Amino acid sequence: MRRGTSAGKAVASVVGAVVFGVAGACAPAPAGPDVAVLRWMQAFAAQDGTTLASLTCQASQADFQNSRLLNALGVSPPTFGAGGGGGGQFFGGGGGGQPVYDVSALQYATTFVDAQSARVRVTGALRMASGMNSQIQTVNGIVTLLQEQRLWRLCESSPG
Q: I want to staple 119 with a disulfide (CB 3.0 to 4.6 A). Which of 23, 47, 112, 125 is the partner?
């Protein structure tokens, strides 16, 4: 009987090692560059500054501005009703309220990737609304990313 107990322990150890190895292998891999850009755009639409900052490279943290990164995509940031009611860049002013963005129609494709940097092309329609006004802007631009702390982060420009 002792023999069966030792064999049972050995089998349990092997099964445990296999299960642990499979569980370790199933740990999520870091997101690819296109997924990082998707998450950044979703955070932008949700106006989630914490997530935006975590997905932005250190070089761009000091002067982080959504408008600068959106300009890289060829999207002019909205100024809904800005300038004391004199009219914003979109909607002829008077939009009122916080702008709402819909990024669900955007597509993301990694065009270049190496160990340190990547580029992702973002295309599609960016929908923007404020109050009763709305606009759709076509996006077709390239976003640069750097890998920092094993994560892809959007970066306005490479540090240099």
A: 112
